[in-house]
Amino acid sequence: MNKSENTPEKAGEFEVSRIERVLDDETTWATPPPHVAEDLLAAIRSERERASAKHPIWLRRFWPRVSVALAAAAIIALVAGILLSSQGVTDRVPLAGTELEPGASGTAAFTATGSGWAIRLDLTDLPAAESGYYYEGWVWNDEGEGVSIGTFHLRGGSDPVQLWAGVDVDAYPWIWITLQEEGAGPAASDQIVMLGLREP
Amino acid sequence: MDPETLQRFSSGDEAAIKTVYDTYSGPVYAASLRILRDPSWAADATQQTFLKAWRAASSYDPQRPLGPWIFSIARRTAIDIYRKESRRIQSDQIDLAEPGPSLEVIWEVFEVRAAVEQLADDEREVIRMSHFDGLTHSEIAHRLDIPLGTVKSRTHRAHQKLLALLDHTRDP
Asked: The pTM is what?
């Protein structure tokens, strides 16, 4: 180490020593193995191919349109909220169909219970999942982490769907409905068919 | 990172993801390693961090700095891995509540490493040789076959750049 020779101007000494402490730690200089980049890109391509196999349009490309759909859904939710206001529901979130299901709409009613959050979905014009596929509800945070709140298929009709969240939904403001393929693993697919944002 | 790349990143563009990875994989891996103290876990955390970032890219606002957004994903990912692996090995010696050093220390590692990545190659080299390899200026001059004065001026310039790049992290 060569601290005496490296000494900069006096005014910056404290900051330099603070930075030097970090620079002296070998973990600061560590570099990820080359396979990490390769594995990452392979995982991204795999997810993207799985998504495009059924639906050629990827969520991120239609995100701006989703925001428009959310605004429209807010109006629907206002009406639904008036209708449901006598049922003791804690919080209602409008759900909008994405470009994968542009005609779908609905609400997610969040109710706090002693065992977690009960989340009732009242959905309109979301078609039943085809055989081999199912829908999955998620709550999602802004940091890209999601928690599944249950699965359903709607093949018996569009009765309200009851889902449950065991996490603090305030920390996970987004609600997504994804179309999942059986056997494709537990991760959320990119086939997001409906979504909503729970305002604080 | 230029605004166009950030915009393309937010739309999930693969080339932009690669650019983001090239820029932040070092800081993410260093911060993850500081938390996890295990190279394979840190590698796993690094891959998961960027995969999550790609999945959530549409929620990233290109008007805001990318570093803190990536860092928050990385830290949470590393902590999740720590807890999962700790449960798997069922060690009574590990505190599951909050692993490793404080948030401030991890943030410093991330920021300093990110700043080092922005130095010119020759500046980064002398800083690395000084701090990581523990060489004196004379030893660096000998190893690089350059004058001692060049090592001193290059080191001074690198320190000044680091100070400027890290000025925003300074305590008020």
From this structure: 0.58
